[in-house]
Amino acid sequence: MGDGTITPRLGNMKALLGIVAGAGASYGIYKLLSGGSFKRNKKSATSESPGVRSTPSSEVTVQPGSLLAKVSGLDVVCPRPADDASGGIIHQSPGNLEPQHLKMLLSCLQTSNNPSDRCRILLTLGNAAAFTVNQNLIREFEGIHIIAGFLSDPATEVRVQTLNALNNLCMNIQNQEQLKVYVPQVLELIEMSPVNSDLQLGALRLLTNLSVTDKHQHLLKESVTLLLSLLVVSAEALQVQALKVLVNLSSNPDMMDDIVQAQAPASVLLLFDARTAPAVLLRLLTFAGNLKAWRPSAQVADELRRKQDCLFRVMLDESSQLHSKLVQLLSHPDGEIQAQVARILT
Fold first, then answer.
1. Which residues of 104-118 are buried (b: 16+ CB within 10 A; e: fewer)?
2. I need a labelling partner for 122 at 20 to 30 A (CA). Which of 168, 223, 304, 343 fits?
3. 224: closest CA among 160, 135, 287, 306?
4. 89: which residues sit within 8 A by CB, 6+ positions away?
5. Residues 78-108 pLDDT 10s
6. Nearest to 335 by CA among 271, 272, 281
7. Any residues with CB less than 8 A from the CB of 248 and at least 6 apart, and which?
8. In sequence order, what are the residues at sequence separation of 6 or more whose Cβ sits closer than 8 angstroms to the Cβ of residue 124?
9. Are 118 and 109 in contact (CB under 8 A)?
10. Measured between alpha carbons, how far is 8 from 31 in angstroms, rounded to an integer?
11. CA-CA distance, 194 to 24, in Å (whole number)?
């Protein structure tokens, strides 16, 4: 970094995130048990991106007051340079990071061999990416590919922080053009991670942001079976997040042919029940309403008649039990749920 660089004294810095414990069986195990099959290209986008992480060094070198002093709002004691009369403790918020600091964070991220340090740096970059100006700067510094390279980090907590940082970066339309190439890898993380884990939640949040507009939704057309299967094996938080993606996709008429042909577990109908959490049920009804508004083309209708386990047969066919489930929900104590059911039935 030039003259005057120092090695900061990190002291007893604690890991910001712990490895998720007790998260249950992985989705990969569930897929094997259920006999499901997802036909999707699982090639990692990082192998084609310029953000390949360089060989870790034995230490991270930064300038005092410019990098680790700003990490996640932590006070870091740095040796006082000769021309600094302000003292040794620097404390600033991520919103005050300057372009050179972002560059140094990205550089240190590539060279750090300490998972705890990588977590701190990724957390800081993620916090900084809450600001539009930093979203643009990180992209201009090739930071999206650098950060996304840690989706395959061996440390679970690093992958979680990577997803969190990419989530904020994804709030920028221009950044989405670079992030879209990582969709296959993000889907693989969802599929192979423990059910209800922070990894799955972070990955689904990223897909939610990426699917808000219809520009990149086609990249998720083969993920519908995965999302539907998660609904029947996961807890409320993950169900809500999976449904957010499904609602986004089903809001696009151009996606509907792919959605209704996707393989779907029949048990998804069990969620149309008064005992289902209202936050889940409301989104599930929105998804069902989008499906009910769809009309198949002649070609698709012919294909659907030959598919015994597709979403169309489960939820939209005349033989489906969805109608009777909806009628029962007309007496739900939640007025908003009643109104949504009534709109679907009429």
1. bbbbbbbbbebbbbb
2. 223
3. 287
4. 69, 75, 76, 77, 78
5. 333 333 322 222 244 666 778 999 999 999 9
6. 281
7. 208, 211, 212, 217
8. 70, 71, 72, 94, 97, 105
9. yes
10. 47
11. 6
What separation in angstroms does the CA of 148 have from each of 46, 60, 136, 158, 203?
7, 20, 16, 11, 12
For the stretch 334-343, contacts whose Cβ atoms lie closer than 8 Å and that sit 24 or more positions apart, written own/partner, are 334/278, 334/281, 336/278, 336/282, 337/278, 337/281, 337/282, 337/285, 340/282, 340/285, 340/286, 340/289, 341/285, 343/289
Q: Give dist(CA 76, CA 52) in Å, integer.
A: 29
Question: Using an 8 Å Cβ cutoff, are 111 and 54 in contact?
Answer: yes
DSSP 194-251: BTT-HHHHHHHHHHHHHTSSTTSGGGGGGGHHHHHHHHTTS-HHHHHHHHHHHHHHHT
Q: What is the pLDDT at residue 95?
A: 64
Q: Which residues, including other chains, have CB under 8 Å from residue 191's CB and lie 6 or more apart?
A: 27, 28, 31, 38, 226
SS3 72: helix
pLDDT at 48: 33
Q: Give dist(CA 143, CA 125) in Å, integer.
A: 9
| Helix extents (H) in the chain | 27-34, 99-111, 115-128, 132-140, 143-148, 156-169, 173-179, 183-192, 198-210, 224-231, 236-250, 256-261, 278-292, 298-304, 311, 322-329, 335-345
Confidence (pLDDT) at 207 = 98
| pTM for the structure as a whole | 0.74
Residue from 231, 331, 319, 323 nearest 283 by CA: 231
